[in-house]
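#help-structures
NK: newbie question, is this the right format to request a structure? protein is DUF4389 domain-containing protein
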Amino acid sequence: MSANDSPYRSVRVSADLDSPLSRWLWLVKWILAIPHYIVLLFLWIVFVLVSVIAFFAILFTGRYPRGLFDFNVGVLRWSWRVSYYAYGALATDRYPPFSLGPEPGYPARLEIAYPEHLSRPLVLVKWWLFAIPHYLVIAFFTGGMRHGWCGGGGLITLLAIIAAVVLAFTAKYPRDVFDLIVGLHRWVLRVAAYAALMTDEYPPFRLDQGGDDPAPAPAATPAPAAPPAPHWT
């Protein structure tokens, strides 16, 4: 297996296409999602502040504080779920939960492996210099960085609208379009995690399509070992 074909391990993006889907609910999802957009506006402000704090923490200690890491993962999860419900995919009618947690029962899921150590020199350049080629690509996917990480325009939203129109006339969401949309989101979220300093693993220039992420599931942080039982003599 070549380096280009090796699995990307840091970020895992999965999605399930719900069926059946309402033929016409997508016309008003922009209204239904407004409460989430308002909350996410404030969450992303905090996300940026947390990333700045994490930058200095990594620069001086080589570690991303776990509480800050979990918060930023939660913001990305929340954004992904809302995008999946609304005009980033329109692939579920289940209303997104107001939650930063993993929500394994929801059809759009995101996991990011917690890094025990991050490169201190790399933190100075990866979020802008090294990520520039990816920024140019995902700007086309999302309609520009001003629309956020999870799609608010561009190719992703165009494909979602096409799928919704097909759904309205056939009662079926085209599977090929779904696979492509999820693949585009997977690319965007991998870059988001890298640019937010959450991993040193460089995102591949690869469109991994489909709802099942080919990346291995991030390993769980092992629980502290229990103290040895007293030995009586």
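mod (FA): yep, format's fine, and the tokens are attached above. The two ends are 56 Å apart (CA to CA).
NK: thank you!
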